[in-house]
């Protein structure tokens, strides 16, 4: 037995002929120049018992290119097509990892003769490299870091968007903006629920069990429910979808017992394309022009009586029983109607009293009025975990109407938001104009903020045409957030802890004036109380360490503010697992740069005025953010002190502890942002809102 310089373990017989070699039996890893030929496949070696679908991942060489697939039906979510001399290549191929590239070759050619147009450029090798296919569906390039004596991920080869991975939200889960939700269908019937409420990435399950194709129920008791703007992860597979109009696509799935869902995408033509799947993995939201049809089942009614003889025998009995039964049924229905109406009236009166008792309550609107103001909720501005926001108009005033998801909010959270923001007024807090509590409908009406949320402007890898914000604008936004929080913490009769400060909850107007929004998780704290005890709530990446004890003060907002400031200054997210593993958490990078006096490296490279003429001021604000990030909440400044520093009335504390503690990795793996090693158990942090 011999191990070669390339890492191939070879077994020879007595004649020095090769009888076995490790390169013929790859597992999850591909070494440089190791061929991955047709018939071979890479599979992750980390078993995830809680998510069986993630254990059915395959990466293989195919005559049509490199394929990555998932599930028992091998649904393709990544592929690179093979061309040779401009034409599709039908011969056998193999894949090889070379310096600077991952290339696909015809099996009859030496590695120097790569097939035309089939080359994935990679970072040049500074030391030994290898490629690994991992249980989070990513294919990563690793390199030996001699300085830190460790392997580091240097490149994510697939380069797919978060929601393009097939198990990111589990079976039947919908990935929207990095969040996982279950399908919600119009009406009062709940067809799907979370498989594990503590781990949303494990997907959803059917409320009523899905029968097998051999069951009569599979033929008679199913129907299709439609989800607008929902697509599927593997529409990038040209062989999976077929041309079809929407109705034919729906009928094709309805008549096929093995079909679990149909996805139709309109390409502005008369037909579009249809994708039928027998195993529903993660779906994608916000896909305009796409419609998903999911096959669902409801529990059967009483079994049918098929015997005509039995029917004749019972005919006389039924005739005499009808009169008595009908009379009893009418009496029972009357009594039941009275009881239910009384309960409904009592509940309605309770709701009325709850809101009428709040002093300074904003205007209460009817559902029909807001439905008309939003043109039947036709102009969607955005969507989050608690519901959708629509563009509306009340008279001459443009408004934003938030329609809360009836399955994703509680009365308590709704009341908290109405009572909190409805009774306070500040230039840096979003103004609530009114609300609606009409039967099961819950809506909030806010002033319209034309600039949208802060996260659309500050991240360097953002999509769209938004230009990088200048330093003066960024500084003004930071000041406005600080003033809004200062008012909540110290300007009201009771301290108000927001508990969910993040860029998505900071809204901007045309002049980039910032206002704090979304008070669904806020808590009131009496002035005489040192803290409050509450369950964990908030967003991973912005949560202070003291959430582990559930004893919190308004200082949790100060910590979140510090995270947001660092994001604004650096132009990237705090948690970004598309980065190499040592850079996945922004505040860990901040700790390293602070300890080595290299804070300048943290400044957004897309903004020249921050790097040149305003560098000293930017670094001073960065130090203020680090003061807010102290693990000991007692060492963090109050928001009034933060405002004083921003206004130049005092200096930042010089004795800072750089041992920042990020709570997120200890309790959650962010959805859509895979980890680089075995992930810890996930946990639901936000309450339904």
TrEMBL record:
Q: Where is the Apple domain?
A: 213-298
The membrane-spanning stretches of this chain are 317-340
GO annotation, biological process = response to other organism
* Record keywords, A-Z: ATP-binding, Disulfide bond, EGF-like domain, Glycoprotein, Kinase, Lectin, Membrane, Nucleotide-binding, Phosphoprotein, Receptor, Serine/threonine-protein kinase, Signal, Transferase, Transmembrane, Transmembrane helix
**GO molecular function list:** ATP binding; carbohydrate binding; protein kinase activity; protein serine/threonine kinase activity
Q: What is its main location?
A: membrane
EC number(s) per UniProt? 2.7.11.1
What is the catalytic activity of this protein? Answer: L-seryl-[protein] + ATP = O-phospho-L-seryl-[protein] + ADP + H(+); L-threonyl-[protein] + ATP = O-phospho-L-threonyl-[protein] + ADP + H(+)
**Domain Protein kinase span(s) in chain numbering:** 375-661
User: Which positions does UniProt annotate for ATP binding?
Assistant: 402
UniProt keyword DNA-binding, yes or no: no
CDD domains membership = PAN_AP_plant, STKc_IRAK
Q: Which PANTHER family does the UniProt entry name for this protein?
A: G-TYPE LECTIN S-RECEPTOR-LIKE SERINE/THREONINE-PROTEIN KINASE SD2-5, RECEPTOR-LIKE SERINE_THREONINE-PROTEIN KINASE
In Swiss-Prot or TrEMBL terms, this protein is called non-specific serine/threonine protein kinase
Q: Which organism is it from?
A: Hordeum vulgare subsp. vulgare (Domesticated barley)
